[in-house]
């Protein structure tokens, strides 16, 4: 692209066994810059034969990689982490034109990918078993072993960040990886695949097969030599992935959707609560975040004041292409743009005109104004269904019990948040809310060290932190009679 300060290849192949290769069918697809609607690159489209080749290479590389001492695996992964961080500016630009998000957020995601790899590099020689007390005459202990070839299906909203989140613990534990990035945003996974091999990761340990779900994703999940599957995406697709994995008797990690409650009490620091609300649903990736604060629950005594402050803050947000680093950038795809606009019309029918926003921005690209609906009730679709865009539903409550009832009255249970100066109230909320994560007095407050995952329809398993290593290891028990 002429405006790019970095050179983006016009064509990308598959990345298998440390090399760029064409798809066996010769088929390709185009990835589109959502801010300009221009083609960024043409990408090889993998099919079942290509997936089989990638898995075969990953299986061939497995014995050698799992036999590398943990300390050495960690050193190699630390070199990969350094390479990612050193190349952050270039990778961030590619991520922005491929995904649409603001440039500073793309760079944060790239650096976070490097941090994941560095964090788990430090864990590679600390995956320890336990000594189990037995009766006299026996010694019993456990060891945690890699599962084998792991298949990773990466979503389009955080392509580089979620790639790193699953890739790093899998490799640290001694597994090999085949990743299928979303067809909307395949470039960062391909770039990091090549970068990792340049930094010293052995060929075949990490392979990337871009393509479409039925052609590449399903064959990856169902492949007999794939020992574990990690999927991030929608609930309907997650159910299909989970069913296919279980049919193959392989463990599956599913991180799915959310309709997350953000609860604000009158005793909260309202400036901080407003700032976090804006970040949770509008300025972080235009609300295309499974852990967005898409339901705002306001105590009746602070409803009017809070909304006045929130509307002022939202009105000041800039909307522009991601390369200009605005507050709110483009929606990642035309398909998602259309879906959000449909939900906005549903919101108008259910709750009336939005307090602000509600329109597509009159410019080239997939831009939508930050939108707030007030007077939302829990029987409305905009209160119950994941919109996955810059659309906020505002509900009102009168006491703690009602707040918990509203918070829990959805099929999802990914994250939740509360803003209050009453620490007892905050921890009562944390105890009673059905969610895998609880933010207190700041949205998105946890880090890579903390486990992340959902209750109910929000998924199975945990990413991040030490808990993620359990997703990529299996426990072997050894019992010896010594008398």
From TrEMBL:
Keywords linked to the UniProt accession: Oxidoreductase
TM ranges: none
Record's keyword annotation contains Metal-binding: no
GO molecular function: oxidoreductase activity, acting on the aldehyde or oxo group of donors, NAD or NADP as acceptor
Catalytic residues identified in the record: 255
A Pfam family matched in the record: Aldedh
Entry-linked Gene3D superfamilies: Aldehyde Dehydrogenase, Chain A, domain 1, Aldehyde Dehydrogenase, Chain A, domain 2
Domain Aldehyde dehydrogenase: 20-478
Keyword Oxidoreductase attributed: yes
Top-level taxon of origin: Archaea
Subunit structure: Homotetramer.
Family: Belongs to the aldehyde dehydrogenase family.
Annotated protein name in UniProt: Aldehyde dehydrogenase
Organism: Natronomonas salsuginis
Upper classification of the organism: Archaea, Methanobacteriati, Methanobacteriota, Stenosarchaea group, Halobacteria
């Amino acid at each position: 692209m002429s405006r790019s300060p970095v050179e983006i290849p016009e064509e990308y192949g598959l990345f298998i066994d440390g090399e760029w290769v064409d798809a066996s069918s010769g088929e390709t697809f185009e990835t589109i810059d959502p801010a300009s609607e221009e083609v960024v690159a043409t990408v090889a489209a993998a099919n079942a034969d290509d997936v089989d080749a990638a898995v075969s290479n990953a299986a061939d590389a497995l014995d050698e990689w799992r036999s590398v001492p943990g300390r050495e695996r960690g050193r190699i992964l630390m070199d990969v982490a350094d390479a990612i961080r050193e190349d952050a500016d270039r990778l961030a630009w590619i991520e922005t034109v491929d995904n649409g998000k603001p440039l500073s957020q793309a760079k944060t995601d790239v650096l976070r990918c490097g941090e994941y790899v560095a964090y788990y590099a430090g864990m590679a020689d600390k995956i320890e078993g336990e000594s189990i007390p037995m009766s006299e005459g026996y010694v019993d202990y456990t060891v945690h072993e890699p599962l084998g070839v792991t298949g990773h299906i990466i979503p389009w909203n955080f392509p580089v960040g979620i790639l790193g989140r699953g890739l790093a613990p899998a490799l640290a534990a001694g597994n090999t990886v085949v990743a299928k990035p979303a067809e909307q945003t395949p470039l960062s996974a391909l770039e990091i695949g090549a970068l990792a091999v340049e930094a010293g990761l052995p060929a075949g340990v990490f392979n990337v097969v871009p393509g479409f779900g039925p052609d590449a994703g399903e064959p990856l999940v169902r492949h007999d030599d794939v020992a574990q599957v990690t999927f991030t995406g929608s609930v309907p697709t997650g159910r299909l992935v989970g069913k296919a994995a279980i049919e193959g008797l392989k463990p599956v990690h599913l991180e799915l959707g959310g309709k997350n409650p953000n609860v604000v009490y009158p005793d909260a620091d309202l400036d901080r609560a407003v700032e976090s609300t804006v970040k949770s649903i509008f300025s972080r990736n235009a609300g295309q975040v499974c852990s967005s604060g898409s339901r705002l629950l306001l105590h009746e005594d602070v409803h009017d004041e809070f909304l006045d402050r929130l509307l002022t803050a939202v009105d000041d947000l800039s909307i522009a292409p991601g390369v200009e680093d605005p507050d709110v950038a483009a929606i990642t795809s035309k398909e998602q743009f259309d879906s959000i606009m449909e939900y906005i019309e549903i919101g108008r029918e259910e709750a009336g005109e939005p307090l602000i926003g509600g329109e597509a921005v009159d410019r080239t690209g997939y831009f939508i104004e930050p939108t707030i609906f007030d007077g939302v009730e829990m029987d409305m679709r905009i209160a119950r269904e994941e919109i996955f865009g810059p659309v906020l539903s505002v509900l009102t409550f009168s006491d703690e019990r009602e707040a918990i009832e509203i918070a829990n009255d959805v099929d999802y249970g990914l994250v939740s948040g509360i803003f209050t100066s009453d620490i007892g109230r905050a921890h009562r909320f944390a105890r009673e809310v059905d969610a895998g994560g609880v933010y207190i007095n700041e949205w998105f407050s946890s880090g890579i060290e903390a486990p992340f995952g959902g209750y109910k329809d929000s998924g199975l398993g945990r990413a991040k932190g030490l808990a993620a290593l359990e997703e990529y290891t299996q426990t072997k028990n050894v019992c010896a009679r010594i008398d």
